[in-house]
Amino acid sequence: MLYLNDEFKAAWPQPFEAAIAQQGEVYRSKEGRRTLRFELQQKSYFLKLHQGIGWGEIIKNLLQLRLPILGARNEWQAIDHLKAINVGTMTAVAYGERGCNPAKQLSFIVTEDLANTISLEDYCKDWREKPPAAELRRRLIARVGEMAGKMHGSGMNHRDFYLCHFLLDETIDEADDTWPQLHIIDLHRAQIRAKVPHRWQVKDLAGIYYSALDIGLSREDVALFLECYRLPLSLEVLTEVTMKAIKLYRKDLGREPVMPV
Q1: Whole-prediction pTM
Q2: Catalytic residues (predicted)?
Q3: d(CA 261, CA 250)
Q4: Considering only CA atoms, which of 145, 151, 30 is closest in space to residue 87?
Q5: Which CATH architecture has domain 2-112?
Q6: Helix 198-211, helix 134-153: angle, nearest 10
Q7: Looking at the domain that runs over 117-253, which CATH code has it been given?
Q8: What is the pLDDT of residues 182-220, one digit of tens each?
Q9: Tens digit of pLDDT for each residue in 5-26?
Q10: Catalytic residue among 160, 169, 221, 252
């Protein structure tokens, strides 16, 4: 499988070799995957290069009842899926996959750099001490809820669904009708099925809730998110999501969260 837009067709006549040789600012290099930022013809891109995780890592994941991430295909398919349901995400400009041996498979994906954006984790971090305007707050929470509901309703779950993986376009004024424009990123572990299993729906919802517990949420904020999420959730499921979010918070931060009031 190989896809290159016109710019990369010209720049990468031997795309797999070019991806391996590409230099840039390295963000991650671990477990057979390297992520870096680079420039081509004065445009900025991100490259994720997968060079095989080895049979040891595959077997370890399977023994832990986890599906191993073998390459860039997950991210490629997830980007295509989100665009098809009109949920903001990255734009892929190059993708390649070569080899049948899952332990040594070579693959890459190149996406446009989402410049002039800020993660919601950073954008909202001071909300408890410096609350934003009520209308701005409502619009942002509603948009996150809507995107989460569309994603889950279409059969896709993220698996790392936190505020840090929503990027907000800072070029759009908050007074503009199109604000907020958000992009979901870091899709290499995403899963797509006919329907999201209960376990993974709870994991995603607990993740986004956990990551928002320090921004001063109110019960009205939570209710607005659920209203815009639109998918039915029983009281039992909501309790499960809440307990899992609290457990994540205790584990990662070592203290009790301040729950919405």
Answers
A1: 0.94
A2: 160
A3: 19
A4: 151
A5: 2-Layer Sandwich (3.30)
A6: 160
A7: 1.10.510.10
A8: 999 999 999 999 999 999 999 999 999 999 999 999 999
A9: 999 999 999 999 999 999 999 9
A10: 160
